[in-house]
Amino acid sequence: MPYISQAERDELHFGDAYTALTAGKVNYLISREIDIELTLHGVSYSELNAIIGDLDVLKIRFAVGNTAAGHGDSQLLIWMTW
User: Using the 8-state DSSP alphabet, how is residue 69 labeled?
Assistant: First the structure.
């Protein structure tokens, strides 16, 4: 897990997760979701492959949205809430 304080983790779990996101907080949120997915479905090649594919799609959407479309950081929040 990425390092962020316990207070910041609690805020992300129980508070408004979409205010003042830092790289560490985004990393924590993504890592937490991956941990939940692996806990629910188990660790297997196919599950890891699906997760890596999802991360690749997110990376491409973020890169295209920020460079080609010029939407800035607001696009990341839209894609993270799908």
Answer: S
The answer to whether 75 touches 58, Cβ cutoff 8 Å, is no
From first CA to last CA, the distance across the chain in angstroms is 22
Which tokens in the block code for residue 71?
Answer: 């939407």
Using a pLDDT cut of 90, give the percent of the chain over it.
28
For the chain, give the mean pLDDT.
77
Q: Where are the domains of the chain?
A: 6-80
Q: Is the pLDDT of residue 78 over 70?
A: no
Q: What is the pTM of this model?
A: 0.64
26-49 burial: b if 16+ Cβ within 10 Å, else e? bebbbeeebeebeeeeeeeeeeee
Residue 18 CB coordination number (10 Å): 13
